[in-house]
Amino acid sequence: MACGPQAVDTDANKVRVTTETTDGDKASSFTLDYEAFTLDNGLQVFLQRDASDPIVAVSTVIHAGSSREKPGRTGFAHFFEHMAFNDSENVPRGWNRGQIPKWGGSRNGGTWSDGTIYYETVPKDAFDKILWIDSDRLGYMINTVTPEALEREKQVVKNEKRQRYDNAAYGYTNEVIRAALYPEDHPYNWTTIGALPDLQAATLDDVREFYDLWYAPNNATLAIVGDIDIEETKEKVKLWFGEIPRGRDIPDPVPQPVTLTETKNLWYEDNFAKLPELRMTFPTVDGSNSEQYALAVLGEMLGGSRTSPLYVEIVDGAKLAPNVSSYNSSSELAGTFTVRVRANAGVDLDDVKAAVETAMARFEAEGIDELALKRVKAGQETALYASLSTALGKANSMARFNELQGDPAYQVKSAAAIRAVTADQVMAAYERHIKDKPYILTSFVPKGQAELVVAGAERATVWIEEVKADVASEEVSAGDLADFEKTVTVHDRSEPEFGELPLLKMPAIWTRTLANDAVVRGIETNEIPLVQFDITLPGGRWAEDPAQNGRFALLADLMEEGTATKTPGELEQAIGILGASINVSAGSEDLTIRATTLARNFEETVALVQEILTEPRWQTEDFDRVKSARLTGIKGREANPQAIAAMAFNSLIYGNTHPLGRPSGGSEDSVSALELDDLKSAHSDLLTATPRLHVAGDIDPDRAAAGLSTLAEAVAPTGADRPAYDIPTQDNAGRVFFIDVPGSKQSVLRIGALTPASSHPDFNKIQFTNEKLGGGIAGDLAQMLRIEKGYTYGAGSFIPRGTVERPFTMSTSVRANATQASLETIRDMVLAYGETFDEVAVEATQQKIIKASARAFESLGAKLGTLNEISQYGLSDRYVEEEQAELVAMTDADFKRIATEYMDESNFVYVIVGDRATQLEPVQAFAAETGKGEVVELDIFGQPVE
């Protein structure tokens, strides 16, 4: 594969960036068109019209990440991101988080070392409202911040830190590495999330100072992509953003690369980890250095494939771990190259370190394999197309890379730069930054297994929060609105009206009947030269008895490990050279092979899928490897409180004999007992089922059907009925269960009860009724537990589609000392829920669901998901439109009936996973006060504790 000429054409403010790729006699190109202009206040703006869907994506990047912070106020850029989603001078409190979803949109933000991003995707009728909100955030929000709002948001951010880092295995690794690699005064010395004491110490003056220093239009980029009129949008941007005052002149940060004079060897005993992990972190180059491209390729060469030296030595050879990874990360000021190995249980990390060194020696001796280099470059082309396949993907890319790299088309050009990397450049980068160079070595091991750390390691120091029992000391609320004098502007900054309502239109779906009565459904779209397709066959937990739980999951793993004629490495290479990815997965009812490929390589990719499906590699050594990896993954699952809660909840609902009550992927006992012949039997059964086929992307129906016809011919359906299972009597309804994870900084709550299957006449109504309660950040649960109380980072509820009864489930992770208060709040909300549906609530719910449908079919993955739902549940090709008609016909009485009948709190099963020492007593108090009897204690496997 060769990278052809890259063209940049400029006509006034219109820019077209084109990159071309050739692969033998095949060629393709990708073009990024945009228009650019800069307001007088310095705000840089990039616009692109994409009328494929009636939506608009808006992205704003502020050049202010954690690197702009100062010691003692770490985590402040991320904290400020949270604050900026609250009210501003002209946007009422709660509208930023609450109203955008009700308008059918999605919104979020993110902070990293170098910047902060805010982004939304909305139906086009809400576009003016987003410009209003985003401009008010940038220019008119600081006067609305109150001490009470500050304290509440502190709790939310602290909850996020607890959930993602403090209560997660290996959550402190990045903190340890940064502190060791960078000097104390280096802006990368601390993590983006920061330290809890620093967050708690933040003051209102700190908020104002950060805003004044960094939140200015001349330190930001705005990108808008979607169904817009370019000239009209320019005027709108000038109207809404043009009056915001220019800030102080802010010079671009100067790179601050670091060097090490010696290797630093550190270890940490992780309260949540179940497996030992080793990381080697080498300092490299910043994001403006062109050597980053060679280092990116080096990561793939060293550990990114089954033929890479790290994989060959550590996984295949020494059998120390199920997988390895190596990668370069070049940020604005500095960069790092990381080798990461999460080893099998009980493995001595000295052995892992020795194996890494052997792999490095192998790499030095063997050099760069040109075929592997070709694979990496093909994969980069596919990744580029995928990342820019949606309006939001393009908006985020242009905004981020213009602000941080000075080039909105940087991602396109970077992809071309990687495809131009030579083997000599890769080896030169290795010798300059990795070979015999000092690095940060970290050993993170499970509690009580210090003997596994690398010899000579020094214990790392990490600040650990004390788990408290008293929620009253941390009760917060939004408080009163700020008293301020509104900034005078020429333009009226009142809320704009909605534009013309976009009409939902499902994409055209074509069908073809193939051999063996297999039906392929497809959606054609030519926005990007990619195709996604899948073949789905009945077979998963539904087709295995309890003693063989995990059989199909293990079969799926093995099917990715080569074929009868290809070793694992050869199969991976064949897939990668096509710029494709192929994934085999087993769910509760099906086994699916899903592929993404360059459109020009569709037929070749189908041929590989067929080979994977029909000719697995029945080699004992491959079976042993995937079985070991599966067991390691099951062991790692024991460290995840959310997974522990979910597995226990499902078991309590369905019992251990029903497929939906068994652990996804199997248990340690069931997988340990599986043999290769068990997988051969499962595979034989698989090929007697009628397949469902789906395809979406840049391919016409006739070509797609012809290409997939061989897959339909590869099976021999027998028409046998699938097994039937009885759902047990719900004896656990109304009971409370507690699982101890010592030292947990949060309690995971999973609460709910069975509801009807998808075929039931009320199923859609149940989903509609749930939307107000648990539908994202705008839902009542999130608004109360996060926005009002500050107990959690997020909360929601859902009801999945299913061929059998599935549970209505509420899920959240709350700070430990708010466990009882959260349980009481949730119960009270559910008990009163039906009465909250007045005519206003009904209309808001209907509008939210209907408008959100404008975004439902944008990506290839969304299109493929739509096709899967149609075929799996026997839905109409117009089912979304039909369901919306059903929604519109619902009255407040209908919503009240559904809430009363299917969200009956007395039937709920309550599962709490948390710190027994501090939280069992509050949970017992909740159970006693609500008449739920004794709390039943379970172990992490969902079994009663004696």
TrEMBL record:
Domain Peptidase M16 N-terminal: 45-166, 535-657
Pfam families on file: Peptidase_M16 (PF00675), Peptidase_M16_C (PF05193)
Keyword flag Nuclease: no
InterPro entries noted in UniProt: Metalloenz_LuxS/M16 (IPR011249), MPP/UQCRC_Complex (IPR050361), Pept_M16_N (IPR011765), Peptidase_M16_C (IPR007863)
Residue ranges annotated for the Peptidase M16 C-terminal domain, each copy included: 202-378, 676-847
UniProt keywords, alphabetically: Hydrolase, Metalloprotease, Protease
SUPFAM superfamilies found in the cross-reference section: LuxS/MPP-like metallohydrolase (SSF63411)
Similarity comment: family membership: Belongs to the peptidase M16 family.
UniProt name for this protein: Peptidase M16
Organism annotation: Algimonas ampicilliniresistens
